[in-house]
Amino acid sequence: MVAVGEAVTNCMKHAYHGAKDGRIMISSSLAEGYLNVHIRDWGETFDTGLYNAPDLGEAHEGGYGVFLMKEMTDRLEIRTDTPPGTEIILGKRLPPDDEVGRH
Q1: How far, in Å, are 3, 4, 16, 49 from residue 36 at the CA level?
Q2: CA-CA-CA-CA dihedral for 40, 43, 49, 50, to nearest 10
Q3: Positive/negative CA dihedral, 12, 14, 19, 23
Q4: CATH numbers and ranges of domains, the chain
Q5: Helix, strand, or coil here: 99?
Q6: pTM for the whole thing?
Q7: Measured CA distances, 30 to 27, 84, 100 (Å)
Q8: pLDDT tens for residues 35-73?
Q9: Which of 4, 19, 55, 66 has the most CB within a 10 Å radius?
Q10: From CA 70, how far away is CA 100, in angstroms rounded?
């Protein structure tokens, strides 16, 4: 949930620059042993080439969103190939079928 919250916050802050009328679609899918959560916006496209991971040795007010999404999921994909906008796919590996009933 934290990773999804970070993705949505990034949409609101960066894609729509804080505008209240920006559209964000959240959906999920199961594929290849992963639960995938898709977060899609139609705002300003995220330029992955400009992203720099934060220096964890220094305190920053922001800039941890993508880092947290990477750390909290097993797979992160940022798609910018269908402008306008960005789609973030967060994948969490599911336990094998024989482990599901034990929890």
Answers
A1: 12, 11, 24, 24
A2: -120
A3: negative
A4: 2-100 (3.30.565.10)
A5: helix
A6: 0.82
A7: 11, 26, 15
A8: 999 999 999 998 877 766 666 667 666 667 888 899 999
A9: 66
A10: 24
